């Protein structure tokens, strides 16, 4: 997300002031406090989300529960955060996004009005509620981070010395890898951090499919690495 306080600098101008334009486009518009009568609907939706996440966690396979349980205690899922709101532990003010005020910014910084008939409900993302705990669970494990290094080598031909998971989605994931940079005059190698993207051949529908695919990828990369070394 991008925020700034200069009222004379438009968002497209801010975008184009960067050397590299953002990979994603942006939508802007007005938000207004939700009417009291509609707050109940928002609370009902939160409860349904919590029930779905709890059901998914309770029925999770070993590959899923192993990663989720590895996340740190301070890393909370959407379910935990929403429950704190419903329990009154957190104060909140619900807002709604006014779609008729929506403006679309493309990757070149151009602006376009958005008509209501162009706006549709997004597809439900069953992976997103668990993304934060999945990322933290992977990064807390040396073995899983080593798997990210294997992925970088086999799929991207990048020899990473260390790696962390940055973000995940149904189409793949982003890695922050420590890769060789410049060789110094004394022969030592300097390193720099670089973002890498590994894409799936097909979208994964949920957290179970995501974790199962990571396991399959790890098994495949180990076979490839063993064949490179002549141990396979």
From TrEMBL:
InterPro entries: DUF2470, Haem_oxidase_HugZ-like_sf. It holds the Pfam family DUF2470. SUPFAM superfamilies: FMN-binding split barrel. Residues 154-217 form the DUF2470 domain. This is DUF2470 domain-containing protein. It comes from Colocasia esculenta (Wild taro).
